[in-house]
Write a structure and sequence with these properties.
687 residues, alpha/beta, Rossmann fold, Beta-Lactamase, 6 domains, five-stranded antiparallel sheet, five-stranded parallel sheet, 17% strand, binds adenosine-5'-triphosphate, PAS-like_dom_sf, ATP-binding, Transcriptional regulator with PAS, ATPase and Fis domain
Length: 687
């Protein structure tokens, strides 16, 4: 039997040593063994064996003193590790990537190797310590040198140390005189590897094809014409509707420049311009479209869609009919606001005081709590009651529509603008009140315009050049937390303060369940024309719900039960199933983590004491006063919470620290904050 051969492997780093050791060992076993050294771990003074393999030519100078000239030497050619190749293949075409390796030569070598393999869909930029970094790259690929990647790059694809390529493996066999014996093993292993890789590629490409086909089906079935181009403007994709619009077969258009096919200056200015708006009404080939364009950040692709303006306008018109001009007259008066609970009575009392003062009002409250109802009642008891009352709900309208509806436009302001222009809602509401619902949904641009109207009491129509004086009272409403939106930069602080000259908070239904019975009878009478009766068990059941959709939800559920009940009697079987009821919307109000807050309060003492203190402060605020410490102590005592003044002070400090109240200076007393109100409501509603 032949003697076992010994291969000495010398590499630069430990990682490379480990992976090449394993690789050579796999190929030569059982005819030979490997002994390996890495220069960064330290080399022996001399090596002996049947063959020396150097992982790179670059090591030559460093190791020459340990080499024995009588031992044959192989300087390995290296290839990238195929096992990780799919990580590179999935990167989008044209992506800028930094290729990071230890020195210039190996970096360039790796790039060339990848390109030779046909992995040439990426723009490779070499980087090695001391070299220049291309700052446009957000991804780095490295063969086992992840620690060298510049720190600003967040995504690193480590394809592992490069392996010894097949020609060098053959050379090793030849020099060890084991080529004949190992040839089969070599070709078998080599072919296996190739097959594995081919399989991986085939699977990857068939998944990709299937996915592409599905996506194509989706976009072909859309009503819009869609075209997608890369950052150079080369068209990558389009759907059937786009083909019909361009009247040129897809095959001819793909891979051509988008500017050539969308030859219209205004269109190109919008598509490639800096304009903040995502969509605009534009003409193309004698037709009007709502053109939308956006960049997909990840893949650097530009997506342009052309929507049928008739459909879009029809939807918007419908919305408009529903949402704008809810009526030029305010339908409700204070006596239409049902409820005898302390909370609703207080809200009504405040609203009545605010009505005659001709300032802007901000109404905050969850959806369905009656914000519009209150706005209407306020208008009707204000000195503007003879003037118009107009409502606008911003939640479902596009920015362009809001702008032109609110401020009006001059003839020729944009494509599709009516002859003679159009007067906006502000002008129409002159002498009256405008109710701006869901104010938290308006864009920054509209916020700025609105602020100007509030400050200057005049406006300029879209495309206009003269200022038109206006005399309108604004009542704005929101179910969002505007203070939080100010913090995140979504809402202008100056506008917030302008709107909040006067302020009204409407309590959620679940905090005034004592009104439920009254509201129930009221709606039953309205809807059931007085003929419908309801079983007491049903009423009992209804009081147990949380009513996240508030009074609107209650009204809808009554309408439903009236419609399904038999013999004019609403019974338990007529209750809608639980999915009908609205779930809590955490984003509806302040984003509070109630559990966390409860735990905090519990850590400081008896939570009931804290709640009682907040409740009393809120009560006092409702009637326009701030409550001082002395009064608080005596009220608390009356209600069964005998706390010393010192204890009350301590609890007030804690509540202020948690942001639930603001302690006034001197004798001014404390005031509950919005956050405090919310947490109080939430804890009470949780029981
Ligand atoms: N206290 C109340 N008495 C009688 N009806 C009420 C009361 N509160 C609300 N409603 C009725 O509930 C429905 C919803 O009220 P409204 O539209 O005013 O709520 P909103 O707070 O403006 O809601 P959103 O924020 O969703 O616009 C309306 O039909 C309104 O008449």
């Amino acid at each position: 039997m032949e003697e076992t051969k010994k291969v000495i492997l010398i590499t630069g780093t430990e990682d490379t040593r480990i992976s090449l050791h394993k690789q050579i060992q796999q190929f030569i076993y059982p005819l030979g063994v490997v002994e390996s050294y890495a220069s960064d771990e330290g080399l022996p003074s001399m090596v002996s064996g049947d063959l020396i393999v150097l992982s790179t030519q670059l090591l030559m100078d460093e190791v020459v003193h340990v080499l024995d000239e009588s031992i044959p030497l192989v300087i390995a050619r290296r290839m990238i590790n195929y096992d990780f190749i799919d990580k590179i293949l999935v990167l989008p075409k044209g992506k800028n990537v930094l290729l990071v390796n230890d020195v210039q030569e190996t970096t360039i070598e790796t790039i060339e190797y990848l390109k030779r393999l046909g992995i040439d869909h990426l723009n490779y930029y070499p980087y090695y310590p001391g070299g220049e970094v291309n700052l446009e790259c957000t991804i780095a690929i490295t063969p086992g040198e992840a620690h060298l990647v510049p720190t600003h790059i967040k995504e690193v694809i480590d394809i592992g140390p490069r392996l010894i390529d097949m020609t060098s493996i053959m050379e090793i066999f030849r020099k060890l005189n084991i080529l004949d014996e190992r040839a089969d093993a070599l070709s078998e292993k080599y072919i296996k590897k190739i097959i594995q890789m081919a399989k991986k590629l085939a699977q990857y490409s068939s998944e990709k094809t299937a996915l592409n086909q599905q996506l194509m089906m989706v976009i072909n079935n859309m009503n819009d014409a869609i075209i997608v181009a890369d950052e150079k403007g080369t068209i990558q994709l389009m759907n059937d509707n786009m083909e019909t619009l361009l009247k040129i077969p897809k095959k001819r258009v793909l891979q051509q420049n988008i500017r050539y096919y969308l030859q219209d200056q205004a269109l190109q200015d919008f598509i490639f311009g800096e304009c903040q708006n995502r969509s605009r009404i534009l003409s193309f080939r004698q037709q009007d479209f709502v053109v939308e364009r956006f960049w997909m950040d990840e893949s650097n692709l530009l997506v342009v869609t052309f929507k049928n303006p008739h459909e879009t306008l029809e939807i918007e018109r419908k919305l408009k009919r529903e949402l704008i001009n809810k009526g030029y007259v305010a339908k409700y008066h204070f006596n239409n606001i049902i409820g005898e609970s302390k909370r609703i009575q207080e809200a009504k009392a405040i609203a009545k005081k605010l009505a005659p003062v001709d300032y802007t009002i901000l109404i905050e409250g969850e959806s369905g709590t009656g914000k519009e109802l209150f706005a209407s009642a306020i208008h009707n008891s204000s000195k503007r009651k003879e003037g118009p009352f107009l409502g606008v709900n911003f939640s479902a309208l596009s920015e362009e529509l809001v702008e032109s509806e609110l401020f009006g436009y001059e003839e020729g302001a944009f494509t599709g603008a009516k002859k003679g222009g159009k007067i906006g809602l502000f002008e129409q509401a002159n002498g009256g009140t405008i109710f701006l619902d869901e104010i938290g949904d308006i864009s920054h641009k509209i916020q700025t315009r609105l602020l100007r109207v509030l400050q200057e009491k005049e406006l300029m129509r879209v495309g206009g050049s003269r200022n038109i004086p206006i005399d309108v009272r604004i009542i704005a409403a929101t179910n969002k937390n505007l203070l939080e939106m100010i913090e995140t930069g979504e809402f202008r602080e100056d506008l917030y303060h302008r709107l909040k000259s006067l302020y009204l908070h409407l309590p959620p239904l679940r905090t005034r369940k004592e009104d439920l019975q009254l509201l129930l009878s009221y709606f039953l009478k309205q809807e059931g024309k007085g003929k419908i009766k309801i079983q007491q068990e049903v009423v009992q059941q209804l009081t147990e719900y949380n009513w996240y959709g508030n009074v609107r939800e209650l009204r809808n559920i009554i309408n439903y039960m009236v419609a399904v009940c038999d013999d004019n009697l609403i019974q338990l079987k007529d209750l809608p199933d639980k999915h009908f009821f609205q779930k809590a919307k955490p984003h509806n109000n302040i984003n509070l983590n109630v559990d966390e807050d409860i735990t905090k309060l519990e850590n400081y003492g008896d939570i009931r004491e804290f709640l009682k203190i907040m409740e009393k402060i809120e009560d006092a605020g409702g009637s326009g006063d701030n409550i001082g410490r002395g009064r608080l102590v005596s009220i608390l005592k009356d209600e069964g919470f005998p706390l010393t003044e010192q204890k009350v002070r301590y609890r007030l400090d804690i509540l202020e620290e948690l942001g639930y109240i603001n302690k006034g200076k001197g004798r001014r007393g404390s005031k509950i904050t919005l956050r405090g109100k919310e947490i109080l409501t939430k804890i009470i509603s949780l029981g």
